[in-house]
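Encode chain A's predicted structure.
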Amino acid sequence: MTRTRALVTGGGTGIGAAIAHRLAADGAQVWAMGRRRAPLEEVGLGVIVGDVTAAADRTAALAATGDLDVLVNCAGVGDAGWSETIDVNLTAAHELAELAAPGLTRRRGSIVNISSVAGIVAGPGEPAYAVSKAGMLMLTRALAVRLGPLGVRVNAICPGWVRTPMADGEVCALEGDVEAGYARVTKHVPLRRPGLPQEVAFAAAFLASPDASYINGAVLTVDGGMTAVDVGMIEFE
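Encoded structure for chain A:
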């Protein structure tokens, strides 16, 4: 049996690293792609140092992996300015998916896009991140419609608050302490806690697997119930 081949962008830390490890645990040959070599080497799988926004780096990445069974678009930035945020979080995912599509078609593979609950509900912060993540959801649906007839499935995951280095910095800025910050941002989340990267990775591995063979164009929230909350009714608890 041919071994599953997977590429995870943003695979050096956080959710991306957890997905890379999970796919490897399931028997896949996995390459983690990112800008910094040191964290990628710590992941301990295939290393591809590159910038997903650079066409040459995308081409080099797929030359290194060959035809893929699984592409996970996880590379992302927070509020890095409008152009960079859109380029990294959305445009690069589209370009890499297009480049990988012929190989994915030959192997009847799948794409898993990592979006965010910020692509579903709006917060008061910089809009570029939310717009990029909302765009990722429509990109997922558009690719699912276009690539589905070729045997390629495309799905998305929307994590809520998840313990990652980027989120640690954000919540610490609120309270001056990571634990207090997470307690504050999840106080209305039904499960009353942030998620773990591994919990998102389980969902990604499922969507990439044959067990999800009839799931295409889906958006799966992994948010502890955050987006199920009617904020206007919170005061009636």
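The longest strand covers residues 153-159.
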